[in-house]
Every structure is written in structure tokens, then in C-alpha cells.
Amino acid sequence: MKTKKVIKEKKYIDKNFYYRLAIYVVLMLILSYILGYSITSFSMVAGIDLVNLPADICDESSSNYDQFLCFINTYKDGGFYYAFYYVSLISIILTSMAIVITNVLYIVNRFFFKVLHKEKSCGAVLYKVEDETIKYLMLYMAQGHISLCKGHQVEGESDEETAKREIKEETGYDVNINSDFNEMINYSLGENRSKDVYFYIAEVSEDKEPKDDHDDEVVGFKWCKLEEGLDILTYDTDRTILIKADRFIKKMNKKKAK
Questions:
Q1: Which ranges constitute the DSSP H helices of the chain?
Q2: How far apart are CA 44 and CA 157, in angstroms?
């Protein structure tokens, strides 16, 4: 028998997050230093005295006219020059803080966070209608609990493909998945492990008894009404799914009857 390759995911901060943040930090540093150099240090580097500029620096007919220096001279007294200075200073401070925070996040995430292994399963609430009564299929599992039909997702499968395959393996039924009903539950499998289970609904039209010829994971079956199903299901999460499915199916059948 071919062993299933079960998909397991690790929940952590995506490494691409660090790449994008690093690029952002570098760009911000470059921009900050360019602004700081060009605006706050230009006069000292160029040896220009911004305090004692010629009075006719903005006179286009004068030999002292300089468009750039005129621009600076016009707006420096209104706070333009100093605004750029403080914006550059704040940008450098914030960027430095971002670098520190990024490294702290990485160290904490890398060495202190416990990796959470996540598994994924898909299945369906199997039902049939007899004499206008909806009955649901309960599965008696070899592990001792009573459950709805579901199973692990295999690499490369879609959620619906997983549900359909698991139903075939565990019950022998070929069904059409109704993905209009789509509910997810999550539960812990122990330390650092959890599972997401996605449920659909599927109506069984085949007139035969269910049977697990795949791996004997299911040791018994029972068709029952909603109330009995809620009573015999082992887990509250399955009960919640069954109640939601029952409401959905009844609402769907009412629409079809109109």
C-alpha cells in the first residue's frame, strides 16, 4: 500500500518579510543621508555662507543671481531649511530603530519561538434523504471515536479532491462535493501541533452499504438523524459542523422545492 505524503506546514514569520524590510531599511538610510547631506551640509561642503548671501542673489539681471541659492535663501527663514534638517534627522533615527527592531524580531523568532507544525485535512458531511428525512453518516473509527468523514491532504491535491478521495477510501462512495458549504475547524494534536479541517457536504445517491476497503481505519458506520448524530459524535467541533450542515441542507432543499 502506498504511503500518503501528508502536508505539514510550519508557522513562522516568512523569510521574505526580512528581505523586504532589509531593502526598505537600506533605501531609507540612503535617502536619509542624501537628504541630510544635500540639505543640511551643502553649505559647509561647498563653503557657501547662507547667512551673508548677496542681497541681489535672486535678481536675474544681477551677476550674483543663482537659482538654487535663491531658492534656499527664500525659504530658509520660513523654516524650509530646518524642516528638511529635522525630517532627515528623524528619518535616520526611525531607520536605526527599524534595524534594531528587525534584528530583535529575527533573534526572538529564530531562537525562542517554538515552531508550530500544522496539518490539514478535508472531508464532508455525508447525507441522504429517505422519506423526506435527512440522515447523516457517522463513522466509527478504529481509534475509538465517532467522527465525520475526513482525512489528510496529500501534496498536490485541492481541498475538494482530498475530500472526495477520503470519502471514497473510507466509505466506498463516489460523491459530488458541494463546496457552497465550506466550514473549517481547528484543534490541537499535542505540543506544537495543530490541525485545520475543512468540511463540505455531499449527498450519497448510491444504494449500497458503506465499507472501508482501504486501510481499516473505519470499523463501523451508522446512518442517523440529526439528534442521534449529535448525541453519538465524540467531539464538539464535529457537532458544530453537523448543526451548520443540517441548517444549510434544509435551507437548500427549501429553495429547490419552490
A1: 15-35, 42-46, 67-76, 80-111, 159-171, 226-232, 236-257
A2: 66
In a domain? residue 74:
yes
- CA 181, CA 202: separation in Å to the nearest integer? 10
Residue ending a domain, among 111, 130, 156, is 111
C-beta of residue 18 within 8 angstroms of C-beta of residue 98: no
pLDDT along the chain (258 residues), means of 10: 42 58 71 62 54 78 80 64 68 75 70 70 95 94 94 90 94 94 85 84 93 86 96 94 96 84
Q: Of 162, 194, 156, which is closest to residue 179 (Cα–Cα)? A: 162
Collapsing DSSP to helix, strand or coil, 134 comes out as strand
Same-domain check for residues 72 and 164: no
Domain containing 246 equals 117-257
Tell me what pLDDT residue 48 has: 59
Q: Which three cell numbers stand for residue 63?
A: 551677476
Residue 5 falls inside a structural domain? no
Which cell numbers in the block locate residue 30? 540612503
Q: Which ranges in 133-232 belong to alpha helices (H)?
A: 159-171, 226-232
Element (H, E) at 219: strand 218-224
Joined grid coordinates for residue 155: 501534496
pLDDT score of 53: 72
Between CA 211 and CA 219 the distance in angstroms is 9
Residue with cell 516568512: 14
Q: What is the DSSP letter of 154?
A: B
Query: Cα(242)–Cα(234) distance, rounded to whole angstroms?
Result: 12
Please name which of 212, 7, 15, 207 lies closest in space to residue 102, comparing C-alpha atoms: 15
A 10 A CB-CB count for 20 gives: 11
pLDDT at 51: 63
